[in-house]
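Suppose you are handed only these lines of text.
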Amino acid sequence: MLNETALQEIHNIRSSYPDRESALLPALYIAQREFGWLSSEALLLVAKALNLPEAKVRGTASFYSMFKHKPVGRNLVQICTNISCMIAGSDDLVDLLKSMYGMEPNETTPDGRFSLVIMECIGACGTAPAMLVNTDFHDNLTEQKIGEILEKYA
Ligand code: FES
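From them, the structure of the protein bound to FE2/S2 (inorganic) cluster can be written out as follows.
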């Protein structure tokens, strides 16, 4: 169930656009923020809140990689391994994360602390390698730095 605050946010967003479809992406973000991921129930709630066909909501949500379709850890680590980051050593950083936390890409640590996702370019090629932890951006990563950064996330 979406809480009243979330429903009001969706309603406010809906009223600022000329059509319901335009409010879909922000509404999906709100649902993901509330539930942590977009279950079938969450997609149905968004469809009802916007009075859109469930298939439209499901199709839109499945198109974008920023929407999660299964539960993720408390902290989502998204590391770029595209060309600039790869040249700057991102593959070694992924290996380090695997050994430090015992998780593979698209997996969550047993304690639910981290989920790891490999990303395409996140627009920080000039300061590669780079990653996002939740919505926090980190660049110029090194093996030492990545460990220090992740220590801050419980
Ligand atoms: S290639 Fe990694 S940020 Fe662009």
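What can we learn from it? Residues 80, 82-85, 121-125, 128, 130 surround FE2/S2 (inorganic) cluster (CB under 6 Å). The domain at 75-151 is CATH 3.40.30.10 (Glutaredoxin).
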